[in-house]
Design goal:
826 residues; alpha+beta; Topoisomerase II, domain 5; 4 domains; five-stranded antiparallel beta sheet; 42 strands; elongated
Length: 826
């Protein structure tokens, strides 16, 4: 038996790596060119082109009766597309969906799916026909305008590309994933594209800036709002870009004065039902606060998704959370990738527009040549008929004398110098053509054909006439199919900030011992005269009380500094707004506090300027300064503000501006120290700090601090029994950091311990907070000045058993509240 592996065998040695590589590349190109990517000229993938061509063959035009989708799909897979019927039907369905296509190509009858993700009915139930726009894609296909190639079994021909009078690739967009590449072309508005094409026809060297005056950006069939033009410009200049799309909404008011968010338009390709389901889960899981109900009220008139808010919810914050957490805002990554000359390429906008114009020129030139040849052929026959009519007697005599048709034809050709075609036409001519009227018709037809031949010849000779014809046809398309813009475009995404939607109003922010926080508009607290009894700031539990409060604006940034020296970041508008008596919201739901952490200082700031620093003051008398810029990039888990000893905790933290002179610390036992601000040099975030004050008495501790900018500034100290006084800063002797200090207030049984200090500003009022939760607002001008070693006057009248636990400054507000007589405390 012969050895099959001898040298004469047909078996060849093949490197398996090279074989796999070659096979995969062949497969890749097949997917890229033959399935997944659109042609840059007609904007269609092969399956879409075959569907339209099969429908054209079946005569299912926009004026014809609908035909069963199953019949159309059967023709497509039987003649042109030997793949699964589901893939073909899915492609047909998408071309009929008004929420997928900017201008649908298929006119569907029956259930073709919905924006909620509902599946279309089976193909045996639905019917379809072409739209008028689809006819424009196929127009002139029978005039040799495009190349035809063999189908999959070489039995018939199919078009390699459609003539397409419409810039369909940009009009309806396209998306597809091939091997190693993908395309994602958004839909556009037709009249904008045509205006840009007209500009390029008149000036082929036009730059993108000129084109952008006409093509404003994508125009999605579902509408929505595009935020930011940068992504659009990037995509049009380079072929790649990212745009943000938001739902279009409007606000309504419910009968009980609650806000209602109504969604009118969804972002492109967002499933409405899934969005509602996802949003409902987020509300249920407390990831989105303030929503009481979500319901879908959409009907055949359009989309209407209603989101009802709770009574105290801030609509702008809820909406912002919806944008961030749901598909109410999506990112569309534009990739202008298409096939040209059987190769994939990423194009710029101008390149795609020019490719379409080039395709139209080719189509019109081929159509003109076809029509010219047809006109010349017909004119040639008519010229022969005219010769016969001019010599009708001789022609009849010759035909009668001829033995047969062949000899008659040869006689005509020889006698009258006719062509074979002309001679055949004369022999086929009916006797009725000999009448005068018929002769006139032939003469008129010949004259019209000669004019048409001249017109067609001029088009082929003149670039200007060719361009005029393209422009004329484009303007016809614009007039027939243009629609208003559906998608709104905002100039800059970065400029659309939640803060722009919220008034920058003064707020009182309170936080309780148990960690409940809220904000209340400052105007809800009427100013009272010194000694007033105040208004309740909130309703607390029996074992809870307000621990601190401050006044700031809605747009300010809050720095939360805890007893452990950790620092967190929060915008004021993210704190829920409540009434004066509302309990508030647990702060642990707003910032990521550890179980053992408690808020010790909350500092509002509008910037993180490098010329500012943040000073930390601890219970045991340590002080530390850190440049404010080190806290501008706060993480959700917070950052270390100061490192503390085990028996120490943070008491206060203050912003220190560039022109600050002194740091001022007061203790519970009425002592204080004033030292140069540079005595506490700036340190890193994790440093422990240095000694600010040493205590004279056991049990003493730091209760407050201030930053002094001028010697004539006044310091207002207040004790726990509502006694306070104003003292000029220069009365406090300047010491070195780390000293034992001097007396800040003369303490007695009538004053109680010192609870804090603030800088006096006569343009502002004093807010005093009692342990019961009442807040008393007092004009600082009504508090009398007193020396350093005195007690002061009564600032607030407190019921038995209550104490002042905190003080702060707030903007002035005039009021006609009652006054009481000043009572000096000896």
């Amino acid at each position: 038996m012969d050895n099959i592996f001898d040298s004469n065998s047909d078996i060849q040695d093949i490197n398996i790596e090279e074989s796999i590589k070659t096979s995969y590349l062949d497969y890749s190109m097949s997917v890229i060119v033959g399935r997944a990517l659109p042609d840059a000229r007609d904007g269609l993938k092969p399956v879409h082109r075959r569907i339209l061509y099969a429908m054209n063959d079946l005569g299912v035009t926009s004026r014809a009766p609908y035909k069963k989708s199953a019949r159309i799909v059967g023709d497509v897979i039987g003649k042109y597309h030997p793949h699964g019927d589901t893939a073909v039907y899915d492609a047909l369905v998408r071309m009929a969906q008004p929420f997928s296509m900017r201008v649908p190509i298929i006119d569907g009858q029956g259930n073709f799916g919905s924006i909620d993700g509902d599946n279309p009915a089976a193909m045996r139930y639905t019917e379809a026909r072409m739209t008028k726009l689809a006819e424009e894609l196929l127009k002139d296909i029978d005039k040799d305008t495009v190349d035809f190639v063999p189908n999959y079994d070489d039995s018939i021909k199919e078009p390699d590309v459609l003539p397409s009078r419409v810039p369909n690739l940009l009009l309806n967009g396209s998306s597809g994933i091939a091997v190693g590449m993908a395309t994602n072309i958004p839909p556009h508005r037709l009249d904008e594209l045509i205006d840009a094409l007209l500009v390029l026809i008149d000036n082929p060297k036009s730059e993108i800036d000129e084109i952008l005056q006409h093509v404003k950006g994508p125009d999605f069939p579902t509408g929505g709002v595009i935020f930011g033009k940068k992504g659009i410009i990037d995509a049009y200049k380079t072929g790649r870009g990212r745009i943000k799309i938001r739902a279009k909404i409007h606000m309504e008011k419910k009968g009980n004065n609650r806000d209602v968010i109504v969604i009118d338009e969804m972002p492109y390709q967002v499933n409405k039902a899934k969005f509602i389901e996802h949003a409902a889960h987020l509300v249920k899981d407390k990831h989105i606060e303030g929503v009481s109900e979500i319901r879908d009220e959409s009907d055949r008139e359009g989309i209407r998704v209603v989101i009802e808010l709770k009574k105290d919810a801030i609509s702008d914050i809820v909406l912002n959370n919806l944008y961030k957490s749901t598909a109410l805002e999506t990112t569309f990554g534009i990739i202008l990738l298409a096939i040209i000359n059987k190769e994939p390429k990423i194009f710029t906008l101008i390149e795609l527009l020019k490719l379409f114009l080039s395709h139209r020129k080719t189509v019109i030139i081929r159509r003109t040549i076809y029509e010219l040849e047809k006109a010349r052929a017909r004119a040639h026959i008519l010229e022969g008929l005219m010769i016969a009519l001019d010599n009708i007697d001789e022609v009849i005599k010759l035909i009668k004398a001829s033995a047969d048709t062949k000899s008659a034809k040869e006689g005509l050709i020889t006698t009258f110098s006719l062509s074979e075609v002309q001679a055949g036409a004369i022999l086929d001519m009916k006797l009725q053509r000999l009448t005068g009227l018929e002769r006139e018709k032939i003469e008129n037809e010949l004259k019209a054909l000669q004019e048409e031949i001249e017109r067609l010849s001029n088009i082929l000779k003149s670039e200007e006439l060719l361009n005029d014809l393209i422009k004329k046809e484009l303007l016809e398309i614009k007039e027939k199919f243009s629609t208003p813009r559906l998608t709104q475009i905002e100039d800059d995404y970065n400029d659309i900030d939640i803060e722009d939607l919220i008034p920058n109003d003064p707020m009182v922010v309170t936080i309780t011992h148990r960690g409940y926080i809220k904000r209340v508009p400052l105007k809800q607290y009427e100013k009272q005269k010194r000694g007033g009894k105040g208004k309740t700031a909130l309703t607390t539990y029996e074992d809870d009380f307000i621990e601190s409060f401050f006044v700031c604006n809605t747009h300010d940034t809050l720095m939360f500094i805890t007893n452990l020296g950790q620092l967190y970041w929060l915008k004021v508008y993210k704190i829920p707004e409540g009434s004066r008596v509302a309990k508030g919201k647990a702060v642990v739901n707003l910032i990521n506090l550890q179980p053992e952490e408690k808020i010790r200082a909350i500092i509002p700031t509008t910037d993180f300027d490098e010329k500012k620093s943040l000073a930390f003051f601890t219970k045991n008398g340590l002080v530390k300064r850190t440049n404010l810029s080190e806290f501008k990039n706060i993480r959700a888990v917070g950052v270390r503000g100061v490192t503390l000893n085990e028996d120490d905790e943070l008491v206060a933290a203050k912003i220190v501006k560039e022109n600050a002179k002194y740091l001022f610390i007061v203790t519970k036992k009425g002592m204080c120290i004033k030292f140069d601000v540079n005595g506490a040099r700036e340190m890193g975030r994790s440093a422990k700090g240095v000694t600010g004050i040493r205590f004279k008495e056991d049990g003493d501790e730091v209760v407050g601090a201030a930053v002094i900018y001028e010697d004539m500034q006044e310091l207002l100290t207040v004790s726990e029994k509502g006694i306070g006084k104003r003292t000029t800063a220069e009365e406090y002797r300047l010491q070195n950091r780390g000293g034992k200090g001097v007396i800040a207030m003369k303490l007695t049984s009538k004053t109680g311990d010192l609870i804090g200090v603030v800088l006096v500003d006569e343009t502002k009022d004093l807010m005093a907070l009692a342990s019961s939760g009442k807040m008393i607002r007092v004009d600082m001008q009504s508090i009398r000045k007193a020396g350093r070693n005195t007690s002061g006057v009564k600032v607030a009248t407190l019921p038995a058993g209550e104490k002042v636990i905190d003080i702060s400054r707030c903007p002035k507000e005039e009021s006609d509240a009652d006054t009481i007589e000043e009572e000096e405390i000896k």
